[in-house]
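Hey, can you fold this one?
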Amino acid sequence: MPVTVAAVAANFTRDLDQNYALIADLVAQARDAGVQLLALPEAAIGGYLSSLGNHGDTVKTTSRSLPPAIRLDGPELRRVQGIAGDMIVVVGFCELDDDGETRYNAAACLDGSTIYGSYRKVHQPLGENMSYSAGDHYAAFDTPIGRVGLQICYDKAFPEAARSLALDGAEIIVSISAWPAARTATAENLQEDRWTYRHNLFDMSRALDNQVFWIASNQAGTFGSLRYVANAKVVDPGGNVLATTLLEAGLAVAEIDIAGTFQAMRGGMFHLRDRRPDAYAPDLVTARGVLVDA
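Sure. Predicted structure:
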C-alpha cells in the first residue's frame, strides 16, 4: 500500500519556542499533504553547533554555544509527540545520558503514543567530538509504515553505516542533517557548491547501494558560522530523486510503494542478496595495510 513521506529543510535555533512553533507548522503542512512519515532535521530541538573544528567559536569547550541536552523520556520529546499525533516524526536533538553529563547527537522516531526507535550519531566530523560522545551501533526498528533505520549527517559518507541498517531489514533509511556549505572556496550559487554536491551524491548513492528508500532532511539558512545547503529529498531504491527542496526551506513530499518498488527493483538485481562477504576484507578497519586511526 502506498504511503506518503516528506523530508524537511528548515532553520532551527536555540529558541525552543521557535522550534516547537516551526515543528507544529511543518506537521500541519505535512498533514494537509497526507504525509504519514515526516523527517525533521538534525538538531531540530535546540539547534546544532554554531561552528565546527577550529572555525568560529569551537576552539574551547567553554566558549561553544551548545544546544540543551534532553532525555528520551523528557518533556521536550513529549511535546513533539503531542504535535505529531498520529503522524510518525523523526526529530533530531541533543540527548542527555543517564549519568546526567554525557551528551549525544541523537534522533528519535515517534508518534503521539510511541517512541519506535532512537539513534546516537556514530561518525563525528570536524571536532564534533568536542561537544558530543559517539554512538556505537546501528539497528533498524519496526513502525506502522515499515522497517526504519536512522542516520545523522556525516554517517552518510560511510557505506557500512547504511549497509548495516539494510542488512537489519531497513526498508526506509531516514538521514537527518545539519549539512553546511564548504567553509572555503564556497560557490556563489550554493546549489553548485562542492559540499552540496557531496550531500546529494551520498543520498542517491546510499539509496542505490542498498536498494532502500532514503529520506534526507537538512537544516536551511544559517546558524552561527554555518550556512546550510537545505536540499531535503526523498530518493527511491534506484537512486532516483522523487522530490527535493533544493536550496529552499520547505517540504519534499513523495508517495512511495515499498512492497511494489522492492519487488520491481530487487527482482532483477538484488544488491544485498548478491553480496560476497567471503571475498571482502575480514577486518574493515584496515585495507591494503593502511590503518585508519580510531
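Confidence is low (pLDDT under 50) at residues 55-63, 290-294. Let me know if you want another pass with a different chain boundary.
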